[in-house]
Specification:
It is a single chain. A 5-stranded mixed sheet has the order 1-5-4-3-2, with helices on one face. With about 150 residues, it is an alpha+beta fold. It has a single domain, classed as Nuclear Transport Factor 2, Chain: A, CATH 3.10.450.50. The model has no long low-confidence stretch (mean pLDDT about 95). Helix content is about 30%, strand content about 30%. It contains 3 helices and 5 strands, in the order ααβαββββ. α1 (about 5-25) packs antiparallel against α2 and α2 packs across α3 (about 65-75). The relative contact order is 0.20.
Length: about 150
């Protein structure tokens, strides 16, 4: 089973991972290794199919493997020329506002807004839907991640 507390804990861990990658990049540390760990620990690519549609992806909208996800988070992959590295943009805060969390056995579905902060800038508001799964080994990982900017008229 998965609980609402597992979802909140997971979201906190995900946000902390984004902030940590930004800080590691800024301090010229090994953000590549950190990004690989982030993806392997929080996304279920190693265990099963993952559906990932990141916010800033339009040419290659869907990132269905670890190579494509890694490119989105840190850039530097010529096969994904639109990627500038979302996780290394200098974020210092990630705040989640869940609109709803639905629990179904070992699956949690949640959606809402998350806000990415930088010093002296207005937070970036992004809409998200996540499907988290408690795997047989007890780990909770993402099996679907869809995020995008709010609709503008």
């Amino acid at each position: 089973m998965i609980s609402k507390e597992n979802v909140i804990e997971f979201q906190k861990k995900w946000g902390e991972g984004i902030i940590s990658m930004s800080n590691t990049y800024k301090s010229e540390g090994d953000y590549l290794a950190q990004a690989k760990d982030f993806i392997n620990n929080l996304y279920a690519y190693l265990e099963e199919e993952v559906l990932f549609k990141p916010t800033l992806a339009s040419e290659t909208q869907f990132r269905l493997n670890t190579v494509a996800a890694l490119s989105y988070f840190i850039g530097e992959n010529p096969d994904f020329s639109e990627d500038s590295g979302f996780a290394i943009k200098g974020w210092n805060s990630v705040r989640w506002e869940n609109s709803g969390i639905k629990l179904e056995g070992n699956i949690a579905i949640c959606m809402g807004n998350y806000f990415f902060g930088k010093e002296n800038e207005e937070d970036l508001k992004v809409e998200y839907s996540l499907v988290l799964k408690r795997l047989e080994n007890g780990e909770v990982k993402i099996i679907l991640h869809d995020s995008h900017f709010p609709y503008e008229k």
